[in-house]
Each structure stands twice: as structure tokens, then as C-alpha cells.
Amino acid sequence: MREFGYRRADDVHGAVALLDGDPEARFLGGGTNLVDLMKTGVERPARLVDVSRLPLDGIGPSEDGGLHIGATATNSDVAAHPEVRRRYPALAQAVLAGASGQLRNMATVGGNLLQRTRCGYFTDVTMPCNKRLPGSGCPAVEGEHRNHAILGASAHCVAVHPSDMGVALAAFDAVVHYETADGAQELALADFYRPVGDTPHLETALPTGALITGVTLPPAPVAAHSRYRKVRERASYAFAIGSLAAAVEVRDGTVHDVRLAFGAVASRPWRARAAERVLAGAPADADSFAAAADAELAAAEPLPGNGYKVTLLRNLVVSVLTELCEEAAR
Amino acid sequence: MPPSASSAITLTVDGEAYPLTVDHRTTLLDALRERLDLTGTKKGCDQGQCGACTVLVDGRRSLSCLQLAVAAEGREITTVQGLADGEQLHPVQQAFLDCDGYQCGYCTPGQICSAVGMLGEHAEGWPSAATDDVRPEAGPPPLTDDEIRERMSGNLCRCGAYVAIVEAVARAAGNAGNAPADGDSRSDGDAEVPGTVRKGAAA
Fold first, then answer.
1. Chain B contact for A223, CB < 8 A?
2. Residue A105: which of B3, B24, B61 has the nearest Cβ?
3. Which domain, by its residues, includes A286?
4. Which domains does chain B have, with CATH numbers?
5. A292: which of A9, A117, B3, B20 lies 20 to 30 Å off by Cα?
């Protein structure tokens, strides 16, 4: 591991000033991803600015009646919080579906949004990877890609974003708040992750040196009827091979409001807006749910080894929406 | 001038203060084992996947292999070596002995620290991925075997002692009196009966 300097920030402004837009410096939160990547040589920062003790760990009502979650709140804090569990249960479920108890106690919300893909070519510095070393190529396209993207990828990179939490945040229209030397700014999560295109190494729209300070969720009554379902290759403590955050409100047998987001299918949490459009005002039945899934997945471009994900996501949409509707009818 | 690559810090481990100068690259795990000679905490994968290095940081279970020592300054660190009260083993340690919750023993310090942290989380009412209804109105989830397995899934045991580990954790939960009864009467001693088959006990 490369030698590096370490400073602990006292406040948000101090943290941004300490980092000073230095491309060789990194903010350190829980460290569960960054320290691991430093050990393998994927990340080689010259300096770390520890932001894990900044007073940004609060979770509470936001000005518009939604919910604010501070950037240094741990995953555990989020999943345990009564307002998250009551008003956005799919968010609590998504967080609980990720990692292990130990990792959830360490990992922070800000770091979760910025975590890197677990693509085996990205994490192996002996292999080419356009995300790690732009222009070096993407072995996954013709190599091991069973768990790679089916939506929004390009010939330059087919890696998926590993977050569970982000999938629920995408479904609930989260807004990311951040601080720069020029002051506080915000970005809708929908605009936070950049399209892959030919620049897979440029992952987010965050300006260089910006510090994520928190996330807000707008009020959404539909979110109280929500669920996160994760499919993985073992029963616990594994990344998703496909996941779904879903919320639905039915009135008089038709869909009044619906939110759908997919995980482990793209370089970012994938909000399924085409599916939502099909469902708006449609009968709340399995045929509609399947048609909605098909509308979203019509854009899928599976690789030879991951076509199963199309079927998997379709089945997830139908089964989870059916369950939510049946439960609401009781 | 490049920034300094080391810092003088004080680590607080099992109630003792240890001043030391660390290279910033030193993990908490390596500081414990190589610098402080506290080798009870084990190095397994060293990449956050096995849980052998689990310690408690300010009372919460954490992976010492993914935490930098310099970033742990000022935290209360508890290792498996700090759990007992003199000669009196921690109830979780005693339960692992009573239930034979190990084979080779290498993952055991991490398993025990993880279980101590997990029982605290459960006592605070935290849900898990095995919890059917996470809404607070649903009340705290009973600590079923499924809940124990899910909550302990960050600790791997290559010997496959999981059946007895689940039993030990359930036993400790009963002894510690911090878990609601889940109706399978394990706290009245049926975990001691050889061959007793409990729901879902196969790992």
C-alpha cells in the first residue's frame, strides 16, 4: 500500500478545505470499501481526510415533511431508525439486505452512494479495466459477466453498482446534498450517477473535492407500502444478482401511485420509469405488472451469460407488486 | 513536502490506554496483534469477508481489518480478551463452551465478539433481513434461529460449526435475559439434550 497522510476533519468546511480538490486525496468514512481497495492497490491516495466523526449522522424530518439522513449515519443507524422503518420500509429492508452486521455498523450513507463496483476485473489490478485504467479495455464483455449489467451499459464497461440502499433511495426520489468550497449544493439521485458511455471512470456528477453531507427523501405516502427484495447466490451476506424496490398504492382496483427501482442490473440504481408509466391508472393485476416489467426490460441488452437477469427482474416485479397489493387489500 | 505517513496516537483497548506511533497504513487488526501483542483477535481473510477480526468499537461490532488504527483513536475498543470479568467468563463465552460452538477455534473470537454485539443490537429492537415486518409497530423481532443465522452471517466458520454456534448464541441470549422468549423453550435447557432437533437447525 502506498504511504499516505491522514487528517481528521473537525467540521464540514474544514473537511472540504483539507481535501482542497486534490485528486490524490480521498475522504474516509467507514472505510469498508476504500480501505479494502487501498489494500489491493485499486485506490492509491496520497492523503486521507477522515470525515467519519463529522456531526452529520442525524436522521430526522426534512423541511418539506420528508426525511433527512446525514451522510455519516451508518447503515445500521438508517435501518434501525423508526421513521425509516415506518415511512420507507423498503429502505430499511434494502440496507438490512446488504453486507453484514459488522459492515453495516461501519459503513456510512455517503460512502454507500460512492462505493465502487465489485466487478472482478475492476478489483484485480493485473487485469485491464476501463473504469480503473481508462482505455485499457473491458474483459467482462467477453469474459466473466454472469453478474453484470443488462441496462444502460456500453461496450466500454458492463459493471453494476453494488448498493442495495441506493435502489430504495432511487425509488423514493432521493436528493443528494453536498458541500463544495462554493457552498452547499444538491443533486437529484437520478442525476447523481453519470451515464457509462465511453467514460466509465467518471462515475458521478459530484464536483471534484465535494463532500456529501446527506440525503433527503421527499414525503411519499406510497412509500409506507413498500418492499425491497434481493436475489443472491447464497441466503445472506452476498451482493445481489438482481433486486427490486417497489411501492404501490391501489385505489378501486387500479394503480394510483407506484415506484419501482432495480438493483444489480446497471452502473447505477435503475429507476424503472417506463414500467411506472405503464402502471399508472392500470388495473392492479398480474397482467399489468408483467406488461410493466416488459416495458422496462425491452431496453435490456443482456450479454451471453446474464440473460437470466431479464427473467429474474420480470418475476420480481410481478411477485412483489402482487404481494403488496394482496397485503393492502387485507 | 509530503504529508507525514505516521501519527502518534493512543488506542484504548479492553480498558487500557496504549500510546503508540503508527504508520497510517496499519489496520486496527495489525496494531492489536503486531504492536500490542493482543493476538486473541484473529486475521482471517483480511478483506472484510470472514468476520474473524471482529471487535467491539464503542460497543458496536466492527471489522478491525477494514479500520485504520489511526482512525480508531479515542474509541473504546473491546476484544475477545476484554470480555471476561476476571475469572468469570462472559455469558457468550460460557455458552460457546457449553454448546461446543467451534471446532478448530480460529473464528471463535470473532464469533463471540460478533454475538455480543448482535445481542445488544437485538436488545435495542433492531430488525434484520430475516424480520418479516420491519415497521416499529410490529415490535421487536423474536430471536429465532433464522434471526440468529441472519444476524451472524458476517462470521464464517470453515469447520462448519454453525449448528452449535446458533445454539450457543441462543443459549447466551436466554442467559443474558436480554431477548424475548420465542416459544421454543430453549432457555429451559433443551439445548443440552443431545440429538434435540430444533426448527431449522441445519445450516
1. no
2. B61
3. 223-329
4. 6-82 (3.10.20.30), 91-192 (1.10.150.120)
5. A117
Q: With contact defined as beta carbons under 8 Å apart, do A75 and A95 qualify?
A: yes
Beta bridge partners of A242: A231
Instruction: Report the CATH number at residue A267.
Output: 3.30.390.50
- The minimum CA-CA distance between B5 and chain A, rounded to whole Å, is 5
pLDDT tens per residue across span A286-319: 999 999 999 999 999 999 999 999 999 999 999 9
* ipTM computed for the complex: 0.96
**Average pLDDT of chain A to the nearest whole number:** 98
In a domain, A130, yes or no: no
Chain A residue at shortest CA distance from B64: A102
Q: What is the pLDDT of residues B113-151, one digit of tens each?
A: 999 999 999 999 999 999 999 999 999 999 999 999 999
pLDDT of residue B185: 39
Count how many domains chain A has.
2
Q: Which residues of A fall within a CB distance of 8 Å from B152? A: 101
Q: What is the 3-state secondary structure (H, E, C) of chain B?
A: CCCCCEEEEEEEECCEEEEEEEECCCEHHHHHHHHCCCCCCCCCCCCCCCCCCEEEECCEEEECCCCEHHHHCCCEEECHHHCCECCECCHHHHHHHHHCCCCCCCCHHHHHHHHHHHHHHHHCCCCCCCCCCCCHHHCCCCCCHHHHHHHCCCCCCCCCCHHHHHHHHHHHHHHHCCCCCCCCCHHHCHHHCCCCCCCCCCC
Q: Are A211 and A176 in contact (CB under 8 A)?
A: no
Whether B195 contacts chain A with CB within 8 A:
no
User: Is A248 within the bounds of a domain?
Assistant: yes
| Domain endpoint, select from A33, A50, A67 | A50
Question: Residue B2: its pLDDT value, please?
Answer: 82
| Residue A272 domain-assigned (yes or no) | yes
Kindly list the residues from chain A whose CB atom is less than 8 angstroms away from the CB atom of residue B147. none
- B59 vs B81: CA distance, rounded Å: 14
Q: What is the dihedral of CA A185, A190, A191, A192, to 10 degrees?
A: 70
> How confident is the model at residue A330, as a pLDDT?
84
The verdict on A105 touching B (C-beta cutoff 8 Å) is yes
pLDDT digits (tens, 9 = 90+) for A223-279: 999 999 999 999 999 999 999 999 999 999 999 999 999 999 999 999 999 999 999
Cell of A26: 480521498
Q: What mean pLDDT do residues B146-161 have?
A: 98
Percentage of chain A with pLDDT > 90?
A: 99
Instruction: For residue A150, tell me if it sits in a domain.
Output: no
Average pLDDT of span A42-64: 97
Measured in degrees and rounded to the nearest 5, phi and psi for residue A245 equal -105, 125
Name the pLDDT band for B175 (thresholds 50, 70, 90).
Answer: low
